[in-house]
Amino acid sequence: MHAAAALPARFASAPRLARAEPGTGTPSLAIADVVAHRAYLVRFAARRLRDPVLAEDAVHDVFEAVLSGRASFGGRAALRSWLTAVLKNKIVDALRRSPAHESLDGDDDGASSEGARNVACPHPGPDEIAEQRQRLARTLAGIEALPRGLRDAMRMRVLDEQPTGEVCRELGISEENLFVRVHRARKHLLS
């Protein structure tokens, strides 16, 4: 099914945004062609910005740039790829406009009279460190309990981070077999 077929009738006879220049191979572009990608672009922006309103604004900025001629489609890539590239730049612009850090000086939210706020430490606390150590100990014990072939592949490739070719030579197996062994070892550890 053609993407423009699902568009409202008002776009059926939409004007062209860019005219094909004779002999240049530059494609012409209809508004309907651009609008057909709107839902995809909004989803893409929402995943990146984690805010549906900002996502809509970014897509609007893309359409505004395309319609005003500030962004010109040269036909060197697929239309969706080109629109996505323009959107990525608009997302970067939106992120640059948003404040990166919250001020610690204000009394906006009823902070103490000194203006200090409780700021969480980004480093794990003692309880989290103990939990991580226990999880690591369980994982290492699980690796040691694996059958020899899976254990050796897992230890050499994942824990020791040896190159694939070196592990294959040492174990006398093919690359595909190494990947299968590591996959099986991980599945076994997760069960």
Spatial ordering of strands, largest sheet: 1-2
Gap between N and C termini: 44 Å
Number of distinct helices:
8
The CATH architecture of the largest domain: Orthogonal Bundle
What Rg is obtained from the alpha carbons, in whole angstroms?
27 Å
Helix content: 55-70%
Shape: elongated
Number of strands: 2
The arrangement of helices and strands along the chain is EEHHHHHHHH
Biggest sheet character: 2 strands, antiparallel
Q: What portion of residues belong to β-strands?
A: under 5%
Oligomer: single chain
User: What is the CATH C level class of the largest domain, in words?
Assistant: Mainly Alpha
Number of domains: 2
Enumerate the spans where pLDDT stays under 50 for 5 or more consecutive residues.
1-8, 10-26
Mean pLDDT: 78
- By secondary-structure content and strand pairing, the structural class works out as mainly alpha
| CATH fold topology of the largest domain | Rna Polymerase Sigma Factor, Chain: A
